[in-house]
Each structure stands twice: as structure tokens, then as C-alpha cells.
Amino acid sequence: MAGGAREVLTLQLGHFAGFVGAHWWNQQDAALGRATSAKESLGELCPDVLYRTGQTLHGQETYTPRLILMDLKGSLNSLKEEGGLYWDKQLDAAIAWHGKLSTHKEEVYPKNPHLQDLLSAEGVRSSDDIWRVKSIPNGKALPAVTTAATPKPLERSVRVWSDFLRVHLHPRSICVIQKYNHDGETGRLEAFGQGESVLKEPRYLEELEDRLHFYVEECDYLQGFQILCDLHDGFSGVGAKAAELLQDEYSGRGIITWGLLPGSHNLGEPQKNIYRLLNTAFGLVHLTAYSSFVCPLSLGGSLGLRPQPPVNFPYLHYDATLPFHCSAILATALDTVTVPYRLRSSPVSMVHLADMLSFSGKKVVTAGAIIPFPLVPGQCLPDALVQLGGATPWTPLSACGNPSGTRCFAQSVVLRGIDRACHTSQLNPGTPLPSPLHACTTGEEVLAQYLHQQQPKVTSSSHLLLTPCRVAPPYPYLFSSFSQQGMVLDGPPRGAAVQSIPVFGALCSSSSLHQALGGLATELTKLDLRRWASFLDAGVEQDDVEELLQELHSLAQCYQEGDSLMD
């Protein structure tokens, strides 16, 4: 692998995971297409960590995500299971058999016309409907995207994640679970036990193992796996069995799981809500057993049954009922907090990151982010950080309640997209310093000093990057008063849409998990499971529920405030 990259294999399990993953890969693609800028170091993040090189049947070089995704029948719409990159119309027509043929055609879903408009503007589809790979100048970089804001019709027309995925996938990436339906009232993957049983079937287990071996065997320095997994439905069981398989077959590699939950739920659907609670609890406990750490990601306010208002971002206008919006925000946070193990220079391995955050059994961590990080033109980083104030400036993204007043045991922090000229104070000599941050001589020192001021006894790892987060179309237009480069404006933006933003993100081992996990166990204790026998019929025993409660309580105990490396 070029440059000795520490490769990561990504698993996307579930439909909301597909939404987050589509935005994630679109952002990686936009970063690849960024032209060289004097203000930005393109070498900070190593794309080879996530991508692999290959060749099409036409001999053209490809650069595709190192990805395995699983979803249900009917979830792909127009996207072919084998992808579109390696398909050859002429070879497809060359059939060896010359006898009588009968043709059976499935319903063809129309391609999303609004995404097609975006793609056709870049010239990636030819008149004979064959995907033509864009030329790859300078190794990996693709032409920069200059499209205006995501059109509102795209937002209204998105039904599935493939409607807005603009990235080519390898034929070994997509695995469809045919026995369950994405749409309809029957044949749904609703319960944890159903998900576990999927990977107990030889057909799906062997298919996953074959794909794992294909990707892993071509890696030179595999550091581990990141799993994007739906927690609210049966994919929590699929994720648990997948993580168990990874731990058994690839012991010593990092396994970082991002447990995904859609932002809102409806009180008028009691069975869905009870199943969501049970699936989330079973998923967290089982994934924790087999992962280096697990981080729930959601814009909801709570993991429990009682709905809480979705989280608020001061500089974003989003619709919490739209998966297209919620998944974009979570993907942006994910693109930021995963920076440490994707760095080109001095990366923090997945295993080391997990060791720092998950000591003493604390294998669930929380995430938070400021999206976008508010920097006014002409303002320096010390000024902006002083204005933030507060020990927990981030908007919480793990549905574990308000983190204010809670204790952080360890944290990994990333601030990205800040121009080097803004890193330190430029006050004239002799001017009184507004804060100790203004005395720092480097941006890295400013950030480290800020974190020490906020949480003086906390083990902190911090990274400051010039590279911003890409929000090029089809990323939704969520920004109120920001320039094209993500700077705060006094009034409405003029001209081109926002293309990139600074983001401040953090992973934290937090005492808020004591109440969140304990509250989850308390709610489960109050359930009369005899009313939800269908959940048990799907493959979970009553004894499993009792064991689950014990595990949740034990996990919650790890986050009592007296338990810290510093005590």
C-alpha cells in the first residue's frame, strides 16, 4: 500500500448506516477532488487508509472504498448490487450459450434525476450509460466540484441512501440480505435475535467471510475495522455477530463500532419503540464485548423510551425527521473524530486510541461536535476558544443527555479547518493579553492549553488540522450565515454555496454514561416482556434478558465519578 498506510476496512450494516456512510464517502470523495491550495496541506489525511486501488475490465485505474455493506432487499433502488464501476455492457452481452433463452427482468428503479444532474455536470456517465472513470491526475486527486448548493428537489426525493451516493463501489462491497425486506409491513428485520440468526446462516456467513478475506489479504498494514451499525433494529444483532467474527479471526486488530440511531421516534408506535429500546440495549452490550470501543451516534436526546427534543446546533438548520439531514451531520462528526487513525504523519492507531479512551472497562464512549466551528473573519483561534467558554462546548451526539456538570475521564479532540494564520494571537507587543491562550506560540499549544483549562485532570489527546471538512453537494444545505470556506458572516451568504467548514469534534469517556446506561437498564426492568413475546420468539431467551440487565448495570458502574486514572 502506497506510503505504508495503516489500512482500515469499513463495515456498514443497516439502512441508516447506509445514509451516514453515503455522506461519509461523498465527503471523502470531495476531499480527494480538492485542488492544491497554498493555504491547505493536502497531505494531512492519508486516503489510502480507507481506499484501495484496482483496475476495471477496460484497464482503467480505480480508487474505491475498502468497504463491505449489508442492507435488505429493495434498499438499493437503481444501484446494482455489483456496483456500476466494473460493469461492461459489451461483455455482458457476450453469452456463450447459443440455444433458446428466456429473460426474467426485475423492476428497474429510475435513477434519482437530481443526483444525475450533479454527476452529469462532472462528465462521469457516457451516452451509452456506462460509467467512465474520471481521470486521476497526480495519483489520486479528482477534479474539484464546483456545483452550487444541493437542490431542494434532491432533499425531497431521497428515499434510500443510494439516491445520493456519488462514489463508485467495488463489486465485493454490497451484500443484500434477500430474506428480509426494506419496505412493507412484513418480512422486516426488526429484532436483535433475527439479526444474529442472519450470520448464523452459512450463506450469509460465508459471503461475509469471503469479502473480509478479499479485502484483508491485499492489505499490508491492516490496523483494524470500523463498523457503522444500526442499533435500533435487527442490524444490531448482525453487527454483534460481525464484531464477534472479527475478534475471533483478526485478534489484536482494532475494532471500533459506531452505533447509529435515527434522530426521532414516534410515541404512537409502541412496538417499534419497545423493539428500539431492546435492540439498542442488546446491541450496546454485545458490541461492547467484541469491540475495542463502541460509540453511540444520534441527534436524539435520549436512548430511552421517553422522546427528548433533538439536539440543537446554533449554526445549522436541519430537519430531525429527515434521515438525509441527520446522517449528514453525523457523518461530518465521524469524519472529524476518526482523524487520529487516518493521519499521514504520526497517526494514532485504532488500538492506541481505544486504549486511551476505554481503560477500566469503559468501552462505551460519547461523541460531541461543534458544526461548524464559529470563526469570524479576522478572528484568531484564542479569541474563538475564549468565546466558547464552558467545560463541555460540544453539542452531544450520543443521546446520553446533557453533558454539562458531568465528568470526563479521557478525551480525544480534533479541531480542523483553521487557517494557519489564525492559529495564534497577533496582538501588538505590550498589549495586555486577554487570556493565557493568547500567549501561546503555536496553534497546537493553544488547543492543548484550552483543553487543560477546561478539564485540568483529564487525559487528553488533541490534533489541529488545516484540512476542513467537505460539504460539497449532494450534502444538504444546512448553513445559515457562512461563507464558501465556512467562515461566520454578518448576514446571508452571497454567491456560491458553502463548500467546506471547520469542525471541532471530541470522543469522551464520560460520567454521563453512568446515568444513560443505568437508565436504559431501569427502563428494561419495567417492561412486561410477556407483551412483547414476538421479540423473544425472534431468537432471544428470557435468560438473555436477565443477563443483559446485569451487563448493563456492570457497564454503568464503570462510569461512577470516582473511577478515573487520576484518582
TrEMBL record:
Swiss-Prot/TrEMBL keywords: Cytoplasm, Mitochondrion
Compartment annotation: Cytoplasm; Mitochondrion
SUPFAM superfamilies tied to this protein: Tubulin nucleotide-binding domain-like
Pfam families reported for this sequence: Misat_Tub_SegII, Tubulin_3
Transferase in keyword set: no
Function: Involved in the regulation of mitochondrial distribution and morphology. Required for mitochondrial fusion and mitochondrial network formation.
Protein name in the entry: Protein misato homolog 1
Gene name as annotated: MSTO1
